[in-house]
UniProtKB/TrEMBL annotation:
GO terms for biological process: peptide transport. This is Nickel-binding periplasmic protein. GO terms for molecular function: peptide transmembrane transporter activity. Keywords: Signal. GO terms for cellular component: ATP-binding cassette (ABC) transporter complex; outer membrane-bounded periplasmic space. The keyword Signal applies. Residues 1-20 form the signal peptide. Residues 83-423 form the Solute-binding protein family domain. It comes from the Bacteria.
């Protein structure tokens, strides 16, 4: 395997952060020339977040495997949010609790092994037995068994109308048997089934993809891709400007004005910037104090100043990416009256990986101070702060949260974040009426009645003031002049696929 020279991301980040007018353009040109010579035809990608769990599919790292077209699931969601075939070509609900999936013929994994029922059973059973479970399986009990060599039966303990949609989650990616070690470690290196094979993962700095010529579908046009993880937003934007990267995730709003407008694309996201308040302990255990925070927030000021109007003011948890939500939303009845803070001290926390969030924290801290709170801030990298947030160490936590990331349906997100047993319940919220509303919505098939039930659950959650939605984000995706076929996916599941490629110099010139 060819080993590529690492891109000078750290040097680039430091130089751009400290930029004072003495930038050496000749050095930058030399860096670009060296990169071009080493990576002809390869796609260079700058990702926002580094892997948190060595790319195990049972974590959020699974979305990287999906975005790179390395790993595949049994079924996927099309642009309209309906089921489409992937590793399974047919599916049917045999009984209220049993679904049968027919597997695609001729699929091989990157290690040369063949897709069959036993491989699928192993992958899905591992996910159901994991601790913690993948988020998509919160509150769900599934059993999986082979139905001959080329089909599997997936059964739920109770009727689950969205069972098939759950299986579209990248966290339920099917990997070869070789990916699963006896000690519980799962490695996707040389174990996926997509058009690109992950050949190398270098810690949290980079990953290497090569074209998989044995792919069951259309072969990749590009020979491979070189992935670099670049949490620094200025460095990512600089990489696009200097040609070091062909595709850049999440360009900071502040950097957009200094980039060629033809190179940036706003993608409306089902992602809400929400302030989670600790409803279980401390100052925010008092509903009246949470109401005081609700009344103190000036959303427009944050949208106008931090996001430079490249975001939408939030009226609820679900934003413009789900057009039906606004039509069905009802005002919260009898909202709690706010208390007077009288200088009480609270800790407001967030993370640095999303460039805008620390600035959001600054504005929020000032707004809360003006309302009478004394505010302490705690801002760190996400990997360093996540465990403290999940264990309820903060009074308030700012989170940029995808609302339909997993199944294409917001119930999974709402259960994960707001149910008593939710695995991502930063607000430490536990109210029986919320659990009941979520259970009622989850029992309904996709359609208008389910949507109404979802909005009823949202209304009850908003009434708790434990989660205060501030804005709905639009991600700014960067694409160089020489790349074609990049996917602009609101669900953040796809980025490159077999049709993504780098034009040669002749094509670029034209």
């Amino acid at each position: 395997m060819r080993h590529l020279k690492p891109w000078p991301w750290m040097a680039l980040a430091l130089s751009m952060t400290a930029l004072t007018g003495c930038f050496d353009a000749s050095d930058e040109s030399q860096q670009k020339a060296t990169a071009d010579a080493d990576t002809k035809g390869r796609i260079s990608v700058a990702m926002l977040l580094p892997p948190r769990s060595a790319l195990t599919p049972l974590s959020d790292d699974a979305f990287k495997l999906s975005r790179w077209s390395v790993g595949e699931t049994l079924v996927v969601l099309n642009d309209e949010g309906n089921l489409a075939p992937a590793l399974a070509t047919q599916w049917e609900q045999v009984t209220p609790t049993d679904w049968r999936f027919t597997l695609r013929d001729g699929v091989t994994f990157h290690d040369g092994s063949v897709l069959d029922a036993d491989v699928v059973v192993n992958a899905l059973r591992t996910a159901t037995l994991a601790t913690p479970k993948p988020r998509i399986l919160d509150g769900v009990s599934l059993t999986i068994r082979a139905d001959g060599d080329h089909a599997v039966m997936v059964s739920s303990e109770i009727a689950d109308p969205l069972l098939a949609q759950r299986l579209t989650s990248p966290q339920l990616t099917i990997l070869a048997q070789s990916a699963y070690a006896d000690n519980g470690v799962i490695s996707p290196v040389n174990a996926g089934s997509g058009p690109f094979v992950l050949t190398q993962l270098t810690g949290t700095s980079s990953a290497t993809l090569e074209r998989y010529d044995g792919y069951w579908g259309q072969k990749a046009r590009a020979p491979g891709a070189d992935i670099s993880f670049v949490p620094d937003g200025i460095a990512r934007a600089s990489a696009l400007r200097t040609g070091l990267a062909d595709i850049v995730e999440a360009i900071p709003v502040s950097q957009a004005p200094v980039i060629d407008s033809q190179r940036i694309h706003e993608v409306p996201m089902p992602r809400t910037n929400t302030l989670y308040l600790n409803a279980d302990r401390g100052v925010m255990k008092d509903p009246a104090m949470r109401a005081a925070v609700r009344e103190a927030i000036n959303r427009k000021q944050i949208v106008d100043n931090v996001y430079e109007k490249r975001a939408d003011i939030a009226e609820g948890l679900l934003g413009p990416a789900l057009p039906w939500a606004a039509k069905l939303r009802q005002p919260v009845a009898n909202p709690t009256a706010p208390a007077k803070p009288n200088g009480v001290t609270i800790t407001l926390a967030t993370f640095t990986d999303r460039t805008e969030l620390p600035e959001v924290a600054v504005y929020l801290a000032q707004q809360l101070t003006d309302a009478g709170f004394t505010v302490k801030q705690d801002v760190r990298e996400y990997s360093q702060i996540e465990s403290d947030a999940l264990s309820g160490q903060f009074d308030a936590f700012i989170l940029s949260r995808a609302t339909v990331l997993d199944s294409g349906d917001p119930i999974a997100y709402m259960y994960s974040d707001f149910a008593c047993a939710g695995s991502f319940n930063i607000a430490q919220l536990c109210q029986p009426e919320i659990d009941k509303a979520l259970e009622e919505a989850a029992a309904l098939p996709a359609g208008p009645e389910r949507q109404k039930a979802i909005m009823k659950a949202e209304n009850i959650i908003l009434a708790s003031d434990a989660a205060i939605p501030m804005l709905h984000e639009r991600v700014i995706q960067g694409e160089s002049a020489r790349v074609r076929g990049v996917i602009r996916d609101p669900r953040e599941r796809l980025l490159i696929d077999a049709n993504t490629y780098i034009m040669d110099d002749t094509e670029v010139a034209q």
